Amino acid sequence: MLLKLALWIQATDFFTYLRGSGYVYPVILSLHMVGIAFFGGMILLTDMRLLGLAMRNRPVSDLVDQLRVPKRYGFLLTATCGVLLLCCKAEEYYYNAFFRAKITLLLLVVVHALLFRSRVYNRAAEFDTDRRVPAIAKTAALFSLLLWAGIACMGRGIGYIEPPFGIHAQLLGGFHL
Amino acid sequence: MFIENPLNSSELSFPILECFHIIGFAFSVGTIALVDFRLLGVGMRRETPLQLAKDTAYWTLGGLVLMVMSGLLLFSSDPDMYYLNWAFDLKMFFLVLAIIFNYTIHRKTVMSNAPGGGKLVACISLCLWAAVLFGGIFIGFLNPTLDINQI
């Protein structure tokens, strides 16, 4: 089911063109990197602040509140490029263990948000008056760091697996890569 | 005389170094971009660009060191290929330019603390770092082969 969808998506004219394009594909990948570089740092800094490792002269809420919107735009850019890249080689990605790990970690980011958003991120202003950032906020920051660093590393790993390319395309017929 | 590079004895070393490279530039370029966005009036507006630059200076430098060190090791795995790769040449050109720009004109603009100023400088800085990233990606999409006639 998922595999059929993957095959259909990558066989559309648009993604067939993207996959074969000499320059457009690497440009999208580059923009994916630009997203990581420009906005990934915001995640790192927010987490480091919560852990008390960076920007200690600034109130916690300054980082958490002010970076929330820019981070969303950054995620939008990075994720859009990521989805385009995925759709170009959807079949390959379907089999790719690193891609599966990356998606799992992204789902865990959602779990992270469900667990910590109301308890930590929406209450950042309360931590400003505390002498020390509470343990739950530090836990949230630590998991956030691990998750996002893991996502970046898994993403890099995707390119290193050679897929059983075209096997299912032949089996299902009608798809020529 | 050929010396075997120990990095090439494991196929894991290159991707692991790449991960450090990515985390390095997320710190360095990320903190520089934070200041640039502030100069453009986006993001951390409760702080001045100068405060942001000061507060992140060590992380910028640390990220740069991690990025350059891992980059040198990556380069050492196959110097011939990089030597012949025009995307690598461009990347190095923009990297040197971006670092020099960051510690001269960019720093001066941030230090001057003039309200509303520095938008052009911020744009140039962001473009330079984006060019470095583009160069890095394009390296992998060009496959120069060592052609004896070109040497």
What are the SSEs and their pairings?
The complex is a heterodimer of chains A (177) and B (151).
Chain A: H1 2-11, H2 13-20, H3 24-50, H4 60-88, H5 90-95, H6 97-116, H7 124-129, H8 135-158, H9 167-172
Chain B: H1 13-39, H2 49-76, H3 79-84, H4 86-112, H5 119-139
Q: Please identify the structural class of chain A as seen in this structure.
A: mainly alpha
Please give the largest β-sheet of chain B. Answer: none
**Count, helices of chain B:** 5
The structural class of chain B is: mainly alpha
Give the biggest sheet of chain A. Answer: none
Q: What form of chain A results from the Cα inertia axes? A: elongated
**Integer average pLDDT of chain A:** 89
* Count of DSSP-assigned helices of chain A: 9
Question: Can you give the helix content of chain A as a percent range?
Answer: over 70%
Question: End-to-end span of chain B in angstroms?
Answer: 18 Å
Order of helices and strands of chain A: HHHHHHHHH
Q: How many β-strand runs of chain B?
A: 0
The helix content of chain B is over 70%
Which regions of chain A contain 5 or more consecutive residues with pLDDT less than 50?
169-177
Q: What Rg of chain B is obtained from the alpha carbons, in whole angstroms?
A: 18 Å
Write the H/E string of chain B, N to C: HHHHH
Beta-strand portion of chain A reads under 5%
Oligomer: heterodimer
N/C terminus separation of chain A? 19 Å
Could you give a short description of this structure?
By secondary structure, chain A is mainly α. Helix content of chain A is 77%, strand content 0%. In chain A, helix 3 runs antiparallel to helix 4, helix 3 packs antiparallel against helix 8 and helix 6 runs antiparallel to helix 8.
